[in-house]
Write a structure and sequence with these properties.
Elements lengths: L5 H19 L5 H45 L5 H27 L1
Amino acid sequence: MYSYTKAESRERRKLFIKGLRQAAADNVDPALRRRIERIDQSAAERGQRELTALHEVQATARQELARAKAAERTAPRTDKAAARQARKDAEQRVKRAERAVHKAEQS
C-alpha cells in the first residue's frame, strides 16, 4: 500500500513527465529514476504504518464488541435496551474498521 502526500504526488507526477520526455528522446537520467524510487519507498513505508494502525483499530473494535455482547448477556432486564444499543454501536464500529482495512489493502 502506498500513501503519497500531496507534495509527493506533485513531485512524482512532475518527475514522471520529465522522464517520459527524456524517454522519447532516448536519454533518461538515472538520477530521475532514483528520485522517483525514493518517493515510492517513503510512500510505501507510510502506507505500511497506516495499515498497521488500521489493523490495531480493527482489533480494538472487535474487543469492544466482545465486551458489549458479554455486557448485553449479563445485563438485568431494566438495562437490556441500553446494552443492546451499545452492542449495535460496537458492531457498527467493527464494520467501519473492517471496511477501512479492506479499502486500504485494495489500494
